[in-house]
Amino acid sequence: MFENVAASLRRVTIPAAVLLCSLNCTAHAADATPSYPMMVLDDVKHVVTAPARWEKDDWQDFGLATLAVVGTAAIVDRPLRREMLRRRGNNRFMRDVERFGAEYSLGVLGGFYVAGALMENDKALNVAQDGLAASIIASGIVTPVLKFATGRSRPNQNQGYTNFRPFSGAASFPSGHTTQAFAVASVVAAHYDETWVKCTSYSIAGLAGLARTYHDAHFASDVLAGALIGTLVGQSVVAHNQTLRSGKLVLLPEIAPGMVGVRVAGNF
């Protein structure tokens, strides 16, 4: 039952653990910066508890995103799958670009880390740190939980686009590869103002999602949901960590069993 979810976790957490150790050493180089493991834990808490801080506009955006996914499932899933099956073949480009939702994405983060360490470039190091944190949260926590909770069958199982069996182990919704690709892409895009960097990052992530539909592993709505999750988590992690690194103080609501209060986030 848990094989698909476990595979998603292994794909991200095993190589991520190696990179995490390296990033932790770099994070300790500056006394003003929290240790990297503590930063990741704070990021996890920040993202997971985000709905408790959402305001009216945030909930409206969530509603629109949900409608977009549902609308895509109703209108696009079947015709796009038919078209992809018609065009399907041994396309090396699609096979290679799909890997930007798996091992290539961590390779990209590793490249930013090495470049940042060798050239003493804080921006590149921050991309590596934030990208790994976003990957752990989006691809290692949020998407696997949703996969298990929704239990949607993959298109290549030929059980229809409406076949949802919660907690069955079916793992089509949302797309894990797309989640991972957009988590990294959104982090890179958030750190660089150049238009070509943003366009390149999101284009590669989009192609990784398209490749999943080409290989009949996901419906279009799975890909859209994964893209939204990866982007939201990536942008949230970057914004939160910029606050931590800048030394600014931020008051965040703190909700726990038997306690409601305020948490102060920042560097001291």
UniProtKB/TrEMBL annotation:
Keywords: Signal. It comes from the Bacteria. The keyword Signal applies. Residues 1-29 form the signal peptide. Residues 130-238 form the Phosphatidic acid phosphatase type 2/haloperoxidase domain. This is Phosphatidic acid phosphatase type 2/haloperoxidase domain-containing protein. It comes from Ferrigenium kumadai. The lineage of its organism: Bacteria, Pseudomonadati, Pseudomonadota, Betaproteobacteria, Nitrosomonadales.
